[in-house]
Amino acid sequence: MAAASVIRATGQLWKLGLALAALVAGSVAPLWPEATGLDWTSGTVLAVAGYAFGCLAIRCPQCGDRWFWSAALDAGLYGPLFGKPACPKCGHGFGHDHA
Ligand SMILES: [Zn+2]
């Protein structure tokens, strides 16, 4: 069974992946500053930028609600975001094949 996530259904999973990659990279890269070229300051900037990108870029195509920003304010939204193929804000369903 594919996860019935509205993020996947609207084709925005890559934005989430990019945000998480920056978040994780910024958090662990400074452990090996010689290899990665990142110290804790630039690592933190990268992690915060990744988080901000996720909050700002992942939006409902229907009503424009910034899902992760809303979820940052109301953690109860994470369940619907990952569990249902519909916008928790406007209720628009994206369940079927989305080009
Ligand atoms: Zn919506």
Residue windows where pLDDT falls under 50 for at least 5 positions: none
Please give the count of helices.
Answer: 6
Helix content: 55-70%
Q: Cα-atom Rg, whole angstroms?
A: 15 Å
- Averaged pLDDT: 93
Computed structural class: mainly alpha
- Total strand segments: 0
Descriptive notes:
- The chain is 56% helix and 0% strand.
- By secondary structure, it is mostly helical.
- It has one domain.
- α2 runs antiparallel to α4.
- The site of zinc ion has 8 residues, from loops.
Which secondary structure elements does this structure contain, and how are they paired or packed?
Blueprint lengths: L5 H4 L3 H16 L4 H4 L3 H18 L9 H7 L4 H6 L16
The chain binds zinc ion (ZN).
Zinc ion binds next to loops.
Short synopsis of the structure:
Helices cover about 55% and strands about 0% of the residues. By secondary structure, the protein is mainly alpha-helical.
List keywords for this structure.
single chain; 99 residues; mainly alpha; 6 helices; 56% helix; elongated; binds zinc ion
